[in-house]
Amino acid sequence: MRLQLALSVTSAALAAGNPLAKRAAIDDCLKAANVPVDTKGSTDWNNDIRAFNQRLQYTPVAIAVARTTEHVAAAVSCAAKVGVKVNPKSGGHSYASFGLGGENGHLIVQLDRMSKVTVDSSTKIATVEAGSRLGHVATVLYNNGKRAFSHGTCPGVGVAGHSLHGGFGFSSHTHGLAVDWIVGATVVLANSTVVEASETVNPDIFWALKGSGSNFGIVTHFKFKTFEAPSQVTKFDINLNWGSGQQIASGWQAMQEWVLAGSMPKEMNMRVFGSGSQTQIQGLYHGSSNNLRTAIQPLLSKIGGSLASAQQYDWMGAFSYYTYGNGNVDLTHPYSQTETFYSKSMVTTALSSNTMKAVGDYWINQAKRNSRNWFIIIDFYGGKNSAITKVPTNATSYPYRDQYVWLFELYDRVNSGSYPSNGFSFLDGWVKSFTDNHRGTNDEWGMYINYADPTMSRTEAQNVYFRKNLPKLQQLKAQYDPTELFYYPQAVSPAT
Ligand SMILES: Cc1cc2nc3c(=O)[nH]c(=O)nc-3n(C[C@H](O)[C@H](O)[C@H](O)COP(=O)(O)OP(=O)(O)OC[C@H]3O[C@@H](n4cnc5c(N)ncnc54)[C@H](O)[C@@H]3O)c2cc1C
Ligand SMILES: *[C@@H]1O[C@H](CO)[C@@H](O)[C@H](O)[C@H]1NC(C)=O
Ligand SMILES: *[C@@H]1O[C@H](CO)[C@@H](O)[C@H](O)[C@H]1NC(C)=O
Question: Phi and psi at residue 88, in whole multiples of 5°?
Answer without folding.
Answer: -80, 145
